[in-house]
Fold:
Amino acid sequence: MGVINVKTDLVRPTQDYLVQSTIDFYLRSLRSKKPLPPVPALASLCYDGRYDVLDGHHNLAVAHAHTRDVVLWVPESPRDFMPYSMFPEINPQHIDTCNQQIQRRFTMAPFYVPSDHSANDILTIDALISHAGVKLSLDRR
Structure:
């Protein structure tokens, strides 16, 4: 499918944590207008019209807090990698990490539903942000 732009509300998290230092990296990147790779995600098998994140939860959280839009890379197979040539402004190591996660999580992520400490499902990026307790203000240094 390739690259698409969607509202962050249509993207379902597939992990139960966010790390503040990684959030801060994405906030600094957003502040400096540094380009970031698309978030790898699959068209959801279980939630019609939604996408399941393969990698990039921190990127998604920052996008949700500040723009409500996110660029997704939607692979059709575990070998449908993000090509360097399509994203020349992105650090190749970042693309490598995304591609490794595409291959690693392609068959698992669609069926994983993270939960909080009370066994409530984390089905939205708002729920993940709340559960993780991260700060998403651009004023953070």
The chain has one domain: 2-132.
